[in-house]
Design goal:
The complex is a heterodimer. Chain A is mostly beta strands. Chain A has one helix and six strands, in the order βββαβββ. Chain A has a single domain, classed as Folate-binding superfamily (Folate-binding fold, 2-Layer Sandwich). Chain A is globular, with a radius of gyration of 15 Å. Chain B is globular. In chain B, helix 1 runs antiparallel to helix 2. In chain B, about 35% of the residues are buried. In chain B, strand 9 and strand 10 form a beta hairpin. By secondary structure, chain B is of the alpha+beta class. In chain B, the strands form two sheets. Chain B has a six-stranded mixed beta sheet. The chains are: A mainly beta, B alpha+beta. Chains A and B meet through strand 2 of A and strand 8 of B.
Chain lengths: ~90, ~210
């Protein structure tokens, strides 16, 4: 069980949260200009690192807000969480 | 707003008003639970950083906007306000209040960027208190409810026995130190949660109040 630090509510049990996949994926500015391969790359392809991973979470049973978190996928160590629009914590990148 | 003669609590079919008679054999009940049906509940959303918004809420309700996470403002027996998120609050009025809270808020806030929605029928309130109230909640809730970290005026949205609830500690008895809690539960989960609480309280002795 992880204790996840919600940037609004503080540390809560993992069951209150829902995982939202990789963070910081930018939507292409002009989707019409993209080739099918490039569009598929944006839609489906994700990095799958062993180590620090920046991912989105939502505090579903709490304040219902989305936020980002840096977590080590190998050890489950949480390096910190940060609000949408903020920079990842130091050492996460 | 549902017409008052059509309003029915989600626990009405349990006929809780007839239950206290059965509990008289348990004078040393460690838990006391009751339903507080038909409270007025208004969901308010807005920017707490906007002083005009906070001021308008205070003017309309006479209580401050609780901007700190997981806190409440106002007295629990009168109109009070619970923090639900960084830009979201729940205004709660007691069952026998005039239903003008929503109108007052709408009038005060109608020129601001915000939302006021009457959600009174969406949740019911279960009140739990007594010597073992904390032990019962600990069975299904991961929040640390120890008095050093969870005191009257604290509000959390969390999970109790797998159902989403809002937990508000309303008071702590000065003499005995026993806490009282309001549990806001969505009406479709109300019967399940009530049954769970009844079952979890059994070992401590349970008294039901109408």
């Amino acid at each position: 069980m992880l204790l996840i630090p919600c940037p609004f509510c503080g540390k809560r049990e993992e069951t209150e949260f829902h995982h939202g996949g990789e963070a910081h994926i930018e939507r292409p500015k002009d989707p019409d200009a993209l080739s099918d391969e490039a569009w598929a790359e944006y839609l489906f392809m994700r990095t799958n690192p062993k180590g620090v991973f920046l991912e989105r979470w939502v505090h579903l049973a709490g304040c219902r807000r989305w936020f980002n978190m840096a977590r080590n996928t190998a050890t489950n160590e949480i390096l910190g969480s940060y609000k949408i629009g903020e920079k990842p914590p130091k050492g996460a990148r | 707003m549902v017409k008052s003669f059509l309003r029915q609590s989600p626990l009405a079919h349990l006929h809780l008003e007839a239950r206290p008679l059965m509990a008289e054999a348990l004078p040393a009940a460690g838990i006391s639970i009751s339903e507080c049906a038909h409270t007025t509940q208004i969901a308010v959303r807005g920017q707490s950083s906007d002083p005009a918004f906070a001021q308008a809420v205070t003017t309309a309700l006479g209580i401050a906007l609780p901007t700190d996470a997981c806190t409440a403002s106002g007295a629990p027996e009168r109109v009070h306000m619970l923090w639900m998120g960084p830009d979201e609050w729940l205004v709660v009025g007691p069952a026998k209040t005039d239903d003008r809270i929503g109108d007052k808020l709408e009038q005060a806030l109608n020129k601001l960027h915000c939302a006021v929605v009457d959600v009174s029928e969406s949740r019911t309130v279960v009140q739990i208190c007594g010597a073992n109230a904390r032990s019962v909640l600990d069975k299904g809730c991961s929040i640390d409810l120890h008095p050093t970290v969870f005191s009257p005026g604290r509000v959390v949205n969390t999970v109790l026995a797998r159902s989403h609830i809002t937990l508000h500690q309303t008071a702590i008895d000065a003499k005995s130190g026993f806490p009282s809690y309001d549990i806001y539960v969505h009406r479709s989960f109300a019967e399940y949660l009530w049954s769970w609480l009844e079952d979890a309280s059994r070992e401590y002795g349970l008294q039901m109040n109408p």
